[in-house]
Amino acid sequence: MEMSFRWYGNDDPVTLENIRQIPQMKGIVSAIYDIPAGEVWPYEDIVELRDQISAHGMRLNVIESVPVHEDIKMGRNRRDELIENYKETIRNLSRAGIKTVCYNFMPVFDWTRIELDAPLEDGSNSLKYDETLIKDIDPLSGELTLPGWDLSYQTDDLKEIMDAYQKIDENQLFENLIYFLEHIIPVAEEEDVLMAIHPDDPPWSIFGLPRIITGAEALRKLFKAVPSKNNGITFCTGSYGASSENDLFEIIDVAKDRIYFVHARNVKWTGERSFQETSHSIHDGSLDMVGIIEKLIKEGINVPIRPDHGRMIWGETGRPGYGLYDRALGATYLNGIIDTLRNQDEIQEETT
Ligand code: DNO
């Protein structure tokens, strides 16, 4: 697996120089953040990002994400035009040598939490989700600070969009996803680009909005509807694993020939549909990180993997979940597991 790290570009307080010093760091996962959702990413901008990363001894291996415009998710009239733009972005990425694209199909809100710096016992802090508290929040009141609401996801008129979603149920949203895929996957095939849908985080409906990429059953349905191998997934342990009802081993079985990108994150279940993010260690969270990595390796899955969110430790402040220190510890933990499980002769060969 190719150890990778998410980097938010030149505004990220975590620098490429910092990231390069994490042992065995090979890949950078990034995006072009200043282009509004729905517009074409110019080839030149992609090349500039790619070359900047290469100049630091790593490679831009995954785009996370090319956002899908709400009009596509809602199946509105403008979707065909927006899908054409998306195709053009896929072509431009491919021409620049970038062959894996992560995206999601979550209505309006990307990943959602109730608290961005909830204390943990050890004095650090991390992101937390509590269904009982979320239920009392009106997303229109502005009370919610959304960690995943990048510029690219912002909408001018939240209320109008939330209202429009009242008419879209899970089946309709799924149909809109399939419509989108039926149009873009042929281009991904031509361009040799792997599309990797990120699960809904958390994997259940929030604020009355439909959510559809939630577990093994949903993936079976997705692959049946669009069988192309370019229609794949981001296997995000923390998103699927936020629900204690999801069996991550079953999800690997269902998706094993279509896992193109791995997000490794641990979470501790704190109640029904409630959890807090922890270090990557199996001793801290509810997920069997060692067993999961072992299964991925056994299945021959050799794709970019990144430590997902980290806690804020050692006084670090910054983008929630995306500081340097705990993600670096996570990468090192994951590398330890991977190196132990991998064929030692192969590792020897690589190092000599
Ligand atoms: C959160 C991330 C998500 C992810 C998108 C993918 O930390 O995993 O925001 O980037 O959902 O499209």
Automatic annotation (TrEMBL):
Pathway(s) it belongs to: Carbohydrate metabolism; pentose and glucuronate interconversion
GO-annotated molecular function: ferrous iron binding; manganese ion binding; mannonate dehydratase activity
Cofactor(s) annotated in UniProt: Fe(2+); Mn(2+)
Enzyme class: lyase
Keywords: Iron, Lyase, Manganese
Catalytic activity: D-mannonate = 2-dehydro-3-deoxy-D-gluconate + H2O
Gene3D superfamilies named in the record: Divalent-metal-dependent TIM barrel enzymes (3.20.20.150)
A Pfam match: UxuA
Top-rank lineage group of the source organism: Bacteria
GO biological process per UniProt: D-glucuronate catabolic process
EC number: 4.2.1.8
Keyword Lyase in annotation: yes
UniProt KW Disulfide bond keyword: no
Xref: HAMAP family: UxuA
Family that this chain belongs to: Belongs to the mannonate dehydratase family.
Protein task: Catalyzes the dehydration of D-mannonate.
Protein name, entry field: Mannonate dehydratase
Naturally occurring in which organism (per UniProt): Salinicoccus kekensis
Recorded name of the encoding gene: uxuA
